[in-house]
């Protein structure tokens, strides 16, 4: 193997495990101290800038510790920083225009509109004279999003001109609301070729992700065709894409795409369903290494993401019973009685998760139901918590 050395920008433990398994040295750039840092690894805690000059300044500690052959972005807020860092460190480069279009929703939608990709109507918040005008242009309701946020952070649903008048639009994008089920498509890309595809079903949006989705074959084919069309239009050469799709009565409608591993423990659920190491697969395409991808999913899997709302945990019941379910392959709770839980800012915020694998969809749904019924968080909620949680 050619000598490789990696900088991970935006820490994900699965990336670290894969690199350690491959025996590849790495360093970490993360915006906050790590709770469980890997032993013997150099870590720099610093912001993730979004301009070339500021990245150059923050990348100096790694320049001095180089050379680095590859830079891997693990989180959404790290992808632009990682792209600039590749240039500063002389690492394998990505197309910066592609990275920006996969990060900024306005650039993304403008580019894909030119390629005829079907999507809900939208407007650039910077071009709207008054916030209330978005209702006149798009109709109600309207979803207002931060252009570079992920996981629903900063998202607002606006129903009236009066509500819109109080919703800031600078550096944001407004879209016509789509009332339809959603799925996501995860694609591993190497040398411009899609090597593996999965469709994830949002069994309970923000809470339960099922792999692979139970879609009729014609609909699944149309979803995959849409994903490949987006990958080709954005000229994505390598990495993993996480593309969200609305399943409307007229057909699949593009939502947005990210060029980084998905959240919601979808990577772990894919690993269980397809019986492979999804994190190793991701690191392999990032480092241009060969990887034998599976061709089908012998199991059905799900990630149950736990968040009981804001408040203070007074008791947790059912942990042992859930862990004893043979279909529950992993149960992790990140809180204990006495811990305070903040309101959920986005789907990436959680207090634990359960990973479930079953031989078929019915058994999977039964285990999901048992898990959610049995695992109970008792909460003390203040008046503000009841209103927000």
Secondary structure layout plus pairing:
Elements: E1 6-9, H1 13-22, E2 26-30, E3 43-45, H2 52-65, E4 70-73, H3 79-89, H4 96-103, H5 105-114, E5 122-124, H6 133-138, E6 142-146, E7 156-158, H7 161-165, E8 172-176, E9 182-190, E10 193-204, E11 208-211, H8 217-233, E12 239-248, E13 251-258, H9 266-274, H10 278-286, E14 300-306, E15 311-317, H11 319-324, E16 328-333, E17 340-341, E18 352-358, H12 361-374, E19 376-380, H13 383-388
Parallel strand pairs: 1-2, 1-4, 2-3
Antiparallel strand pairs: 5-8, 6-7, 6-8, 9-10, 9-12, 10-11, 11-14, 12-13, 14-18, 15-17, 15-19, 16-18
Helix pairs in contact: 1-10, 2-3, 3-4, 4-5
Description:
A hairpin with a 2-residue loop joins strand 9 (182-190) and strand 10. This protein has 13 helices and 19 strands. The model has no long low-confidence stretch (mean pLDDT 94). The radius of gyration is 21 Å and the shape is globular. It folds into four domains: 6-93, Rossmann fold, CATH 3.40.50.20; 121-176, ATP-grasp fold, A domain (Dna Ligase, domain 1); 180-286, D-amino Acid Aminotransferase, Chain A, domain 1, CATH 3.30.470; 300-388, 2-Layer Sandwich (D-amino Acid Aminotransferase, Chain A, domain 1). The strands form four sheets. Strands 13-12-9-10-11-14-18-16 form an eight-stranded antiparallel β-sheet, with helices on both faces. Strands 3-2-1-4 form a four-stranded parallel β-sheet, with helices on both faces. Strands 5-8-6-7 form a four-stranded antiparallel β-sheet. Helix 1 crosses helix 10 and helix 3 (79-89) runs antiparallel to helix 4 (96-103). 32% of the residues lie in helices and 28% in strands. The chain has helices at residues 13-22, 52-65, 79-89, 96-103, 105-114, 133-138, 161-165, 217-233, 266-274, 278-286, 319-324, 361-374, 383-388, and strands spanning 6-9, 26-30, 43-45, 70-73, 122-124, 142-146, 156-158, 172-176, 182-190, 193-204, 208-211, 239-248, 251-258, 300-306, 311-317, 328-333, 340-341, 352-358, 376-380. The longest helix has 17 residues, at 217-233. It is an alpha+beta fold and 389 residues long.
């Amino acid at each position: 193997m050619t000598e490789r050395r990696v900088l991970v920008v935006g820490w994900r433990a699965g990336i670290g495990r894969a690199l350690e398994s491959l025996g590849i040295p790495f360093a970490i750039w993360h915006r906050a101290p790590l709770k469980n840092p890997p032993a013997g690894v150099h870590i720099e805690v610093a912001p993730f800038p979004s301009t070339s000059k500021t990245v150059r300044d923050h990348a100096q500690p790694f320049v001095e510790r180089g050379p680095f052959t590859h830079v891997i972005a693990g989180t959404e807020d790290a992808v632009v920083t990682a792209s600039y860092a590749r240039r500063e460190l002389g690492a394998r480069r990505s197309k910066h225009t592609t990275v920006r279009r996969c990060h900024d929703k306005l650039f993304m939608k403008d580019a894909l509109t030119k390629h005829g990709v079907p999507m809900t109507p939208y407007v650039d918040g910077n071009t709207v004279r008054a916030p209330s005008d978005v209702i006149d242009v798009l109709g109600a309701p309207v979803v207002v999003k931060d252009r570079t946020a992920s996981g629903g952070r900063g998202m607002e649903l606006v129903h009236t001109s009066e509500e819109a008048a109080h919703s800031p639009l600078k550096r944001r994008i407004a879209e016509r609301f789509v009332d339809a089920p959603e799925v996501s498509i995860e694609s591993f890309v190497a040398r411009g070729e899609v090597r593996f595809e999965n469709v994830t079903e949002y069994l309970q949006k923000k809470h339960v992700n099922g792999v692979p989705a139970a879609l009729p074959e014609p609909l699944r084919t149309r979803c995959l065709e849409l994903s490949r069309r987006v990958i080709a239009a954005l000229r994505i050469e390598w990495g993993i894409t996480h593309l969200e799709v609305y399943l409307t009565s007229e057909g699949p409608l593009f939502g947005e795409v990210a060029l980084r591993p998905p959240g919601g423990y979808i990577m772990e659920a894919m690993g269980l369903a397809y019986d492979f190491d999804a994190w190793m697969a991701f690191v392999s395409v990032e480092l241009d290494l060969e990887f034998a991808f599976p061709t089908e999913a012998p199991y059905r899997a799900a990630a149950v993401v736990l968040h009981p709302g804001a408040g203070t945990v007074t008791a947790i019941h059912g942990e042992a019973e859930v862990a004893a379910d043979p279909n529950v392959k992993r149960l992790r709770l990140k809180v204990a009685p006495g811990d305070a839980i903040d309101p959920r800012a986005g789907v990436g915020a959680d207090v634990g998760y359960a990973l479930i694998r079953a031989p078929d969809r019915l058994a999977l749904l039964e285990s999901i139901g048992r898990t959610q019924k049995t695992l109970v968080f008792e909460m003390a909620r203040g008046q503000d918590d009841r209103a927000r949680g």
